[in-house]
Known about the structure:
five-stranded antiparallel beta sheet, SH3 type barrels, 8 strands, three-stranded antiparallel beta sheet, 193 residues, alpha+beta
Amino acid sequence: MRYLIFTGIFFIGIAASGxxxxxxxxxxxxxxxxxxxxxTGTFISAIxxxxxxxNGIISKIRNDTLFIQQQRVYYVNxxxxxxxxxxxxTIAVDYRDIHRFNYSSHTGIGGAPRRRGFTEVALPTLxxxxxxxxxxxxxxxxxxxxxxxxxxxxxxxxxxAAAVGGSGILMKRIGRNNNExxxxxxxxxxxxx
Length: 193
């Protein structure tokens, strides 16, 4: 029995020493504050420079390359019966090809980023549509009625509408550029070999 236990411990030790530590990525702000660390087994959501969307679990990081296991669920019709089928595949992406990281300090199950809220998605669009819509409508009505733009404080209302629409455009632009590498973020590759 002693030999069996000794042999088991010996082989477990060999197997454990044969595993090499995995490299990892650290996502930092320009002021060196760490925002997120990506290592084997974590979820990553990002966009490459060519527009390719990356969403999956990191299976390995080695030689500046992330191996990401992605999955697609799609509807199929098998023998006249509806069914869902899942396709699992692994892609390799150089970490320098990632343009934007979709990260959040508030993460959900499996490290998935939280969903963006009303102020990040709908509010800027509503501001642009409302502000410039009012500006266009007021201009068309004023010209149709052959009124002056100086009557009844129309210019003040139109200036406020233009400011609201411009603020919506600015909010969209700020929200889009917030997670881009090089602007406010830097990626540090940690080589463990």
